[in-house]
From TrEMBL:
<keyword id="KW-0813">Transport</keyword>
<dbReference type="GO" id="GO:0015031">
    <property type="term" value="P:protein transport"/>
</dbReference>
<dbReference type="Pfam" id="PF08700">
    <property type="entry name" value="VPS51_Exo84_N"/>
</dbReference>
<comment type="similarity">
    <text>Belongs to the VPS51 family.</text>
</comment>
<dbReference type="GO" id="GO:0007030">
    <property type="term" value="P:Golgi organization"/>
</dbReference>
<comment type="function">
    <text>Involved in retrograde transport from early and late endosomes to the late Golgi. The GARP complex is required for the maintenance of protein retrieval from endosomes to the TGN, acid hydrolase sorting, lysosome function, endosomal cholesterol traffic and autophagy. Acts as component of the EARP complex that is involved in endocytic recycling.</text>
</comment>
<keyword id="KW-0653">Protein transport</keyword>
<comment type="subunit">
    <text>Component of the Golgi-associated retrograde protein (GARP) complex. Component of the endosome-associated retrograde protein (EARP) complex.</text>
</comment>
<dbReference type="GO" id="GO:0006869">
    <property type="term" value="P:lipid transport"/>
</dbReference>
<dbReference type="GO" id="GO:0048193">
    <property type="term" value="P:Golgi vesicle transport"/>
</dbReference>
<feature type="compositionally biased region" description="Low complexity">
    <location>
        <begin position="291"/>
        <end position="308"/>
    </location>
</feature>
<keyword id="KW-0175">Coiled coil</keyword>
<feature type="region of interest" description="Disordered">
    <location>
        <begin position="277"/>
        <end position="308"/>
    </location>
</feature>
<dbReference type="InterPro" id="IPR016159">
    <property type="entry name" value="Cullin_repeat-like_dom_sf"/>
</dbReference>
<dbReference type="GO" id="GO:0032456">
    <property type="term" value="P:endocytic recycling"/>
</dbReference>
<feature type="compositionally biased region" description="Polar residues">
    <location>
        <begin position="279"/>
        <end position="290"/>
    </location>
</feature>
<dbReference type="GO" id="GO:0005829">
    <property type="term" value="C:cytosol"/>
</dbReference>
Length: 823
């Protein structure tokens, strides 16, 4: 027994334990059946059959203390009381069940007694019915055969009456236009009349019915050709004609022919609208040029025909597509639905099942739809090709979306039709053509912007009267933009226009557009169309068109302003450093470009832009160097250096060279950083040329000057050159101001040197060259990266003049300095 002292009926757990003990006592399992349990032979098992109280008590006295014995006693008393209570509860519950069962049995006895009486009554009634049925069968047994015979004769007479009244019945139906009843009646009698056609009476009936049914078929054909009836009437008409053995193929052809005539009217209306649009486009004048605005790079101020302005057409493309969808496509869908209901989807029963009408009718329908759809598609493509303006792309996208959406109805009505796929191809071609138009518009916009830049660069010259484009004059500085402003305006306009184009093209991939989920618009359109065909192509176009400015020829570098070359070189350099990466990243994020196919890497575009910038900057150096070289060459070639007078001042051309170089320095400094120079010596502006000392040595030893003396002097000069660094005149320049000015000065002084080598000088001619070179040396050393380069070239110029001089007597250095400082 358990040692738990808690009363068993105090909680649900205790009650379940008590019930389990009772089940265990009575040997019952969970289902209330006697369980087959193994008998316990332990005499101390209080629940076993072999329980021995004496043994159990002896065991307790030996093993337990007095306190434990008292606890066992109290626990056992509680369990005995709990078991007595449970026994009373079980007795009361079973007593109530016995009472309830007794009442139920008593009620069942009463119910079965009433049912027994009713069954006895029913049995008596069935016996009576059986007797009456036997009497009737016996009475009518002799007349049954006669009645059956008379019934058959009556049926035959009714059939004969129907046959004889058939012509009149058919005429009546024909008058009342009850064509279905007439055909049904004729079909019921046709087999009988055919079977007994050898009999004259039946032959006459058959001939009359044939004439009447021919008239009926003629009326049905006329009703079918008119086509003014409803779909239900047409369906009934076709069904009746088929029942009258009208060829199904001929009916299909007639139906499609009539439908084609109605659809031709819609197509002709669309074609007439295209012709009207073409006439209005021909008679429309060009867009007038607007007055220049305050923005120097605004394309609207210089472009006569702005590609981003849409032509004012009479009917826009959305109205055209709406008309085509509401008239032609809707009518075509109605024709398809009616035709399928008449010839394809109607149940094929009896003799029609063997004719395979649906297959034949379906083939004709596909040919019919493909033919008319091809004409409609050609009109749509012609209208799309007329859509040249790219200002509002949403109109075209909405029109294409509506066009594609309405064609999906045909795919649902006519599965397997190629019409929806052809429509999708038209949308794809329109998207590709749109990208080409946007690329062309961007290229035109870029050219127009450059034209505005050139006009802005030329404005200071016109205002000041020959001043440089760098804005040196104070009168034009406030009215005209500077190079940084022009560069910022040009770059911002191009970038903003490209963003606007990307936003317009992005409409093709909007979520609410039905064709945006097509594989082309998810993959190839984004990667090859937008990224490669539009953005990358436009960036390459900028680089290529910029490089074309370097191909101009002529002594003065062609018609391209040098400032424009400098500005374009900086634009390409900015593209290489940041703009290209920004544009391509923006494109990839906006269009979710997946690089499944090879695309142009950013590094390749940046390299191309840097190459263009380098070529433009080299060409700028060359052009500016040639401009200064032209002045120096003319100043040397147009002067008589043998008979010239003693120099009293610096020639004006040298002052002009210094002024132009200073102007170029300011101009380049607006767009490029300073750069790195070598440390200047403290007496750079006071330096004397080494060639002068050579000249003095030559004069000092003039009495002993022999033909071999020039050879010695040339030898010393050549030896000096061997130990000097080689100067590359046309080497590529770096992207900084010092490198650019160094390149220009190298070209100018080299030209000066070569021109001097071609002339012969007198004493004063040599002294004039000495004064000019000293003046140049005083100012040009500030612009170059290495002042020794200027010193070397000027040494070469003075040395060459001394070698070409008939009386090489140089001017004293102090006198030269006085003249140069006096200017």
């Amino acid at each position: 027994m358990s040692s738990d002292t808690t009363p068993p009926d105090s909680d649900p757990k205790g009650q379940r334990r008590v019930h389990n003990m009772l089940k265990l006592y009575y040997g019952l399992n969970e289902e209330g059946k006697v369980a087959d349990q193994a008998e316990s032979l332990d005499p101390c098992d209080i629940n076993g059959l072999h329980f021995d109280p004496d043994v159990y008590l002896n065991k307790l006295r030996k093993e337990c203390s007095l306190g434990e014995l008292m606890d066992h006693e109290s626990c056992m008393v509680k369990q005995i009381r709990s078991l007595d209570s449970d026994m009373q509860t079980l007795v009361y519950e079973n007593y109530n069940k016995f009472i309830s069962a007794t009442d139920t049995i008593r009620k069942m006895k009463n119910d079965f007694k009433k049912m027994e009486d009713e069954m006895d009554c029913l049995s008596a009634n069935m016996t009576a019915i059986t007797e009456f049925s036997a009497r009737i069968s016996g009475t009518l047994q002799d007349q049954h055969a006669q009645i059956t015979k008379l019934s058959g004769v009556h049926t035959l007479l009714r059939k004969l009456q129907f046959l004889f009244e058939l012509p009149a019945r058919l005429n009546k139906c024909l008058e009342l236009q009850a064509y279905a009843q007439a055909v049904s009646a004729h079909r019921r009698a046709r087999c009988v009349l055919q079977q007994y056609s050898h009999m004259p009476s039946f032959r006459g009936i058959q001939d009359d019915c044939h004439v009447i049914m021919e008239q009926l078929a003629q009326q049905l054909r006329q009703k079918f050709r008119d086509g003014g009836s409803s779909a239900k009437d047409l369906s009934e008409c076709v069904e009746l004609l088929l029942q009258l053995d009208e060829p199904a193929e001929e009916l299909c052809d007639k139906f499609l022919s009539h439908a084609q005539s109605r659809l031709e009217v819609d197509l002709q209306g669309l074609e007439a609208e295209l012709k009207d649009s073409a006439v209005s486009d021909t008679g429309r004048g060009s867009v007038q040029k607007t007055s220049p605005g305050s923005n120097p790079v605004s394309p609207s101020s210089s472009s006569v025909n702005n590609p981003f302005l849409s032509p004012t057409a009479g009917t826009d493309i959305l109205e055209f597509i709406d008309r085509g969808c509401n008239e032609f496509v809707s009518s075509l869908c109605l024709v398809i639905a009616s035709y399928q209901e008449l010839f394809i989807n109607r149940p094929q029963e009896g003799e029609f099942a063997s004719k395979n009408i649906p297959e034949m009718a379906n083939g004709k329908l596909h040919v019919f739809v493909d033919t008319l759809a091809a004409r409609y598609f050609s009109l749509v493509e012609r209208r799309i090709q007329e859509e040249k303006g790219v200002s509002d792309n949403s109109l075209l996208v909405r029109a294409l979306d509506r066009f594609h959406r309405r064609l999906q109805a045909i795919s649902k009505l006519l599965p397997g039709s190629a019409v929806p796929s052809h429509g999708t191809e038209i949308v794809v071609r329109a998207a590709r053509e749109r990208i080409k138009q946007y690329l062309s518009a961007l290229q035109t916009f870029y050219h127009d912007s450059l034209t505005d830049v050139r006009q802005a660069l030329a404005a200071p010259r016109l205002a000041v009267g020959g001043a440089s484009a760098s804005g040196g004059g104070a009168s034009s500085k406030d009215d005209t933009p500077s190079l940084p402003e022009l560069l910022a305006s040009l770059s911002n306009f191009i970038l903003n226009q490209l963003k606007s184009v990307l936003a317009s093209v992005h409409l093709f991939t909007a979520k609410d557009i039905t064709f945006s989920n097509k594989p082309y618009f998810k993959g190839e359109f984004c990667s090859q169309g937008v990224r490669e065909g539009l953005v990358v192509s436009f960036i390459k176009f900028i680089c290529q068109s910029s490089r074309q400015y370097c191909e101009s020829t002529g002594d003065r570098g062609g018609s391209t302003p040098p400032a424009l070359l400098l500005l374009l070189s900086r634009l390409c350099l900015d593209y290489e450093t940041s703009t290209i990466s920004y544009i391509l990243t923006l494109t990839d994020e906006q269009f979710l470009v997946q690089h499944h196919t090879p695309v142009t890497p950013v590094t390749a575009l940046c390299a191309e832009a840097r190459e263009a910038a380098q070529k433009l900057l080299n060409h700028y150096v060359k052009v500016q160097g040639l401009i200064i070289s032209q002045m120096l060459r003319k100043s040397v070639e147009t002067r008589d250096w043998v008979n010239t007078i003693e120099p009293r001042n610096v020639r004006a051309v040298m002052k002009r060279v210094v002024e132009d170089t200073t102007s170029i320095d300011v101009q380049v400094g607006l767009l490029y950083e300073e750069g790195v120079r070598k440390a200047h010596s403290s007496d750079s502006s006071k330096r004397t040329f080494s060639v002068y000392s050579s000249s003095r040595q030559q004069i000092r030893y003039a009495p002993s000057y022999t033909p071999s003396a020039p050879m010695d002097t040339n030898l010393l000069s050549n030896i000096h050159k061997l130990f000097s660094e080689r100067i590359d005149i046309f080497s590529p320049v770096e992207f900084n101001k010092v490198s650019v000015l160094t390149g220009i000065i190298k070209i100018s002084l080299k030209t000066f040197l070569e021109c001097v080598r071609l002339r012969t000088f007198g004493r004063y001619g040599l002294q004039q060259i000495q004064v000019d070179c000293h003046y140049l040396q005083m100012y040009l050393w500030r612009f170059v990266s290495d002042e020794n380069l200027v010193h070397f070239l000027l040494d070469e110029i003075v040395g060459s003049a001394a070698h070409r001089c008939l009386d090489p007597s140089p001017m004293e250095q102090s006198v030269t300095e006085v003249i140069c400082e006096r200017g």
